[in-house]
Amino acid sequence: MNQQAPPKTANTSPTLSVDVDGKRFAYREFGPSTGVPVVFLHHFTAVLDDWDPRVIDGIASERRVITFDNRGIGASEGHTPTTVAAMADDAIAIIRALGLEQVDLMGFSLGGFIAQVIVTQQPALVRRIVLAGTGGAGGDGVGNITVKLLGDTVHGLLTRTDPKRYLFFTRTANGKAAATAYMDRLTERTHDRVTRTSPRGVAAQILAIRRWGAQDPMDLGSIEHPVLVANGEDDRMLPTRASFDLAHRLPNASLRIYPDAGHGGVFQHHKQFVEEVLKFLRSPYGPI
């Protein structure tokens, strides 16, 4: 009698690699092996171990999920690009190298920038998009690296502590409790963890983010794909008004704003977020 293989969860899925132009890119897969996969695109400084296990496993309960480390980040080789366009080129190359003909995209923060470029460059490659805690190029407040953001990030690198506790959540009682729970979840995986982002990689990503914020706005009206936009109501990294702007400018978008939540609102409200993402990905009619 054949035994069914155990499911590949956020805390057990092995780290794999794929070659792209002579460089090794690290990735992980979760959930079923069939169907249109959901490709997750990282936030600023993030590595494979920074995705919330509840979000990964929640979406992987129905959908194939793929996460990967960007070039020069975590377990992936090469030098970190200094433009969002170059990061999008890498993501497209990875998707092609994995033999995928069409994908859904889940872009969080910097990953949301990358998702917008991917769908603009390769519209036939993308079926649906989730944009969380992110904004459009040249948007008001988008790409601003504030003294507080930079200070918290540098402090985290120097002290080996994670600034997401402060940057992703509000400082209310609910926000502080959600931050502790989230940081605890990120430590659940105890083996096969990847290297943290180097100061050089952080500097390259900061430059890419600043360039994104300084460039001319994209023609988001040309993106006809169904899009789910989500954020917390008090995002101190990428202003929540940028999410409203995205939902307004994208012709086929719906918007979810989570209360008493910040940049990491989709992690604080992970149960509701996962339910809404799965409903959105199932729907044959576009926005929910």
UniProtKB/TrEMBL annotation:
Pfam family, one: Abhydrolase_1
Domain of life: Bacteria
Keywords recorded for this protein, A-Z: Hydrolase
A single MF term (Gene Ontology): hydrolase activity
Domain AB hydrolase-1 residues, every copy: 37-269
SUPFAM superfamilies associated with the record: alpha/beta-Hydrolases (SSF53474)
InterPro entries xref list: AB_hydrolase, AB_hydrolase_1, AB_hydrolase_fold
Protein name as it appears in the record: Alpha/beta hydrolase
Gene source species: Rhodococcus tibetensis
